[in-house]
Structure to design on (391 residues):
């Protein structure tokens, strides 16, 4: 038997070494048991501790347990509208209808962190149009600081039509000729917001064209000078780049500035000109001397992690995928929400693995619904999924 004890705002799972945030009255204490056919009652000390960082859920009623006093994660880059077919497995021309959903990898991460109870902000540019104002409102509704957003009167908000294959994987068709996100200028950056960040997160799409590329570089330099941790998810979208070679060079041009990098298996193959992404020696070629953490996502299989001192793999949660859009962003939100609260995770392999289990659960829950931002999980739903996975 593995005993469960609900005490204040944490759900302690003795026998599994888990501590999950859970909404219960502060005065309540409830104890129950879960049958465990493969474990005899062990002492808690015989298991590694699993602790999801973050304070107790507040009484704001939004269900997200957001903590405005928590360390700030600022996300920089694009925000756009995804149009997702209502029926999977069809081409764009065959799709009977599309569901409109807010998206854009950096914005997804910002919302993901806020929904998990963290503090986040978004810096980027949208059109001075109905979609642009809708996106700004969506950030506000999801408790993301949108003071760094800018509105362009001469360019439209970017659109992306996303084809869902029968396996839930995606193909993209973008409308950016140019879109507003490409036109962000260095003079429009909210430097005060950047300097307040604990982590500054970005992708590579903002490196494709000027003036956004110069704004991106300036924001990174400002964050680095302020002692902010730099987090990089290249988020390769080849159709947006002039050529594969320009994409490879662009992505690698800022590689050695990052403290944390998250990449996929496909991106490893692309960046190493077709080498085996499952070979640790190949992955280590992408590890630069100033890097603190390199993460490789493997979809439903989970993820791999690499630091100077250790490396390993953390299994993912098995779910039925509906739409993989935003899964990687949810994973990034999960791990950054943990690291923002406690950067010492980077030196403790056991606690890092626990944080990555949390991040894997974030990604798994996201693929069970259509769209990116609408599917991002709350901290409670992640806690429930992790609880169910050990029963």
């Amino acid at each position: 038997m593995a005993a469960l004890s609900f005490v204040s705002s944490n759900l302690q799972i003795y026998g599994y070494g888990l501590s999950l945030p859970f909404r219960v009255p502060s005065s309540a204490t409830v104890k129950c048991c879960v049958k465990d056919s493969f474990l005899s009652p062990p002492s808690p000390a015989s298991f590694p501790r699993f602790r999801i960082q973050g304070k107790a859920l507040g009484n704001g009623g939004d269900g997200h347990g957001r903590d405005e006093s928590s360390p700030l994660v600022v996300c920089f880059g694009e925000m756009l509208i995804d149009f997702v077919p209502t029926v999977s497995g069809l081409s764009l021309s065959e799709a009977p209808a599309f569901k409109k959903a807010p998206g854009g990898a950096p914005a997804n991460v910002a919302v993901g962190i806020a929904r998990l109870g963290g503090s986040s902000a978004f810096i980027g540019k949208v059109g001075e149009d109905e979609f642009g104002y809708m996106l700004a409102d969506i950030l506000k509704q999801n408790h993301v600081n949108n003071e760094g957003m800018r509105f362009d009167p001469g360019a439209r908000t970017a659109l992306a039509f996303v084809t869902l294959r029968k396996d839930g994987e995606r193909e993209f068709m973008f409308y950016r000729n140019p879109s507003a996100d490409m036109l962000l200028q260095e003079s429009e950056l909210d430097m005060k917001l950047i300097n307040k960040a604990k982590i500054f997160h970005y992708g590579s799409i903002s490196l494709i064209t000027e003036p956004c590329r110069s704004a991106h570089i300036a924001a990174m330099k400002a964050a680095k000078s302020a002692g902010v941790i730099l987090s990089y998810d290249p988020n390769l979208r080849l159709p947006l780049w002039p050529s594969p070679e320009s994409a490879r060079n662009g992505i690698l041009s800022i590689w050695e500035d990052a403290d944390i990098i998250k990449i996929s298996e496909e991106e490893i193959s692309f960046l190493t000109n077709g080498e085996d992404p499952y070979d640790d020696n190949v992955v280590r070629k992408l590890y630069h001397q100033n890097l603190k953490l390199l993460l490789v996502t493997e979809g439903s299989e989970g993820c791999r992690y690499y630091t100077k001192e250790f490396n390993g793999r953390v299994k993912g949660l098995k779910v039925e995928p509906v739409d993989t859009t935003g899964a990687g962003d949810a994973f990034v939100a999960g791990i950054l929400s943990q690291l923002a609260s406690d950067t010492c995770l980077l030196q403790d392999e056991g606690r890092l693995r626990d944080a990555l289990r949390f991040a894997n659960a974030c990604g798994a829950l996201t693929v069970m619904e259509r769209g990116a931002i609408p599917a991002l999980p709350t901290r409670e739903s992640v806690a429930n999924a992790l609880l169910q996975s050990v029963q």
